[in-house]
Specification:
The chain is of the alpha/beta class. The protein is built from 18 helices and 22 strands. The chain is 34% helix and 24% strand. Helix 3 runs parallel beside helix 5.
Length: 510
């Protein structure tokens, strides 16, 4: 390892309206190592890396490369300094092929680039770093894991030397995560500097050489891997705050009531890139959490959309709270007490230019409008939002901050608070703990169990098998739009579910 860091960040400060995101942060990045950046939501990790990549400009501080001060005013400046970043949301053109997406990114793109030459360059890098993907495949037809490989290939062919990964395992299946870590090991072997932003302690402990913990915009401590364990990292992340890691306690169900949800042979057409659902029989009782497991793209999103009315039944029926609801519009379904925790709040339920309290009011306009819609009862909005945040144990920077400037985890916190503020009867939750730090994820799980114990039905779609096993009363496995298995978690194993998720083994529905 070089004695001098490849990149050195000194005294980096970045402010947004009402938020001090980075407060005099120092960080060194060395070649031939995986440097994990760990911290709770809003700790400033992604902001710091976006400063390094030129997406944001620091208000103060400096960046040195190999001991030389450099100015990074844009992503183009960063790329010219051999710094690349793989964002959570990929920057790709779905209609173009893998090779075409890569070609558009290359800084040395000649006026005429032959197909054979481009394919050869892609194949050489792919083979060396286990990034196998078909150069001729349309990107829109690839899995999340394959699309991530395309992003990394773009950076490697552009000769980046420092690679920033922002929550790269967020949407990956277990075997894809293992594959990504093999890629990390190969890159480390060849002297690349890797920065790995994550909330997942076990992943940090599995792959990182050094770990920097951030809290409230500052770096608390940097540890070598052999100096760290889960308890020490949690203490650094949250200070004196107590963090509950054990699954929340479940209580016995009350008397039997009509199902919160019942699907009878429900199917959908699956047009375009959507997965067709086929003959889905599913019941969620009041006071029950039904977990849904599956590799991304096997019908989880379509199942949630079908329940919410965003997707129509091409066959079969849907019942809500004992009433036939197959043709109900979204507005009627929501008005009956169905809450929706989306996979991507910014894209689906939040208005990034509106403040936190304004988003709450817009989402429940009939409740808060006064004088025939001419005014809004802002005091009631704030009261309900404060109550919900306190019940969840969440803190956010400000109710008056635009949602678009919040971290991904804080946006998820706001969404959870808004959607559970009015005591829903059925909660459809898409990956509710994705992107949340340990403490916030524990609080989110606790609130799902709270509503389950209060008599609400919960559909929990998650990629975290440990979470599904610990929370679910009933576990459903989806594969290619069909139910591959239904069973109580105590009657199966993670290994069995993993086989069903990948189509490696069949199981009869019970």
């Amino acid at each position: 390892m070089d004695s001098q860091p490849f990149l050195l960040l000194q005294g980096i400060t970045k402010k947004f309206p009402g938020i001090l995101a980075n407060d005099r942060v120092n960080l060194e990045v060395r070649r031939g190592e995986v440097h994990a950046l760990l911290g709770e939501n809003g700790a400033g990790k992604s902001t710091l890396m976006k400063v390094l990549y030129g997406f944001y400009r620091a208000d103060s501080g400096q960046i040195l490369q190999s001991g030389r001060p450099v100015q990074i005013r844009s992503p183009q400046d960063a790329r010219s300094l051999r710094i690349g970043m793989v964002f959570q949301d990929f920057i790709q053109i779905s209609a173009l092929t893998v090779a075409e997406n890569i070609a558009l990114f290359l800084p040395d793109l000649p006026f005429l680039l032959t197909r054979e030459r481009l394919f050869r360059r892609i194949e050489e890098i792919s083979k060396r770093y286990e990034l196998t993907v078909d150069p001729a495949a349309p990107v829109g037809q690839l899995s999340i894991g394959e699309r991530q490989k395309v992003e990394l290939l773009k950076l490697l062919l552009a000769e980046a030397q420092a690679l920033i990964f922002d929550e790269p395992t967020r949407s990956l299946a277990p075997h894809e995560i293992e594959g990504l870590f093999r890629v990390f090991a190969n890159l480390r072997r060849d002297g690349y500097a890797l920065i790995f932003i994550t909330h997942k302690l076990q992943e940090v402990l599995a792959i990182a050489d050094r770990i920097t913990v951030m809290r409230r915009g500052r770096n608390v401590e940097t540890l070598r891997r052999n100096e760290a364990d889960a308890e020490k990292l949690i203490a650094l992340m949250f200070g004196e705050k107590e963090v509950v890691l054990s699954p929340p306690r479940k209580e016995a169900r009350g008397e039997k009531q009509p199902p919160a949800l019942e699907l009878r042979g429900a199917s959908s057409r699956g047009q375009g890139l959507k997965t067709a659902l086929q003959d889905i029989h599913l019941t969620i009782s009041p006071g029950e959490i039904v977990g849904v497991a599956g590799v991304s793209g096997n019908g989880q999103k379509e199942l949630g959309d079908l329940i919410l009315g965003l997707e129509t039944c091409s066959a079969g029926q849907k019942f809500l709270f004992g009433r036939e609801a197959t043709s109900w519009p979204v507005s009627r379904i929501r008005s009956q007490g169905v809450a929706f925790i989306p996979e991507d709040p910014i894209q689906m339920t939040a208005f990034p230019w509106l403040t936190v309290q304004e988003n709450m009011a817009v989402g429940h306009i009939s409740k808060y409008s006064r004088k025939k819609g001419l005014t809004i009862d802002w005091e009631a909005v704030r009261s309900d939002l404060d109550r919900s945040l306190k019940r969840l144990g969440f803190q956010i920077p400000s109710l008056f901050a635009p949602v678009g400037i919040l971290s991904g985890g804080n946006v998820q916190r706001v969404t959870l608070a808004q959607e559970t503020a009015h005591d829903p009867r059925l909660i459809v939750a898409f990956y509710p703990t994705r992107g949340l730090d340990v403490r916030s994820a524990a609080a989110a799980r606790e609130i799902l169990v709270f509503f389950r114990n209060s008599g609400s039905g919960v559909l929990l779609i998650s990629e975290d098998l440990d979470e599904l096993f610990s929370l679910s009363d009933l576990l459903v496995v989806l594969y290619r739009g069909r139910i591959a298995g239904i069973f109580p978690p105590q009657e199966t194993t993670v290994r069995e579910v993993g086989f069903l998720m990948t189509g490696s083994k069949e199981a009869s529905r019970s």
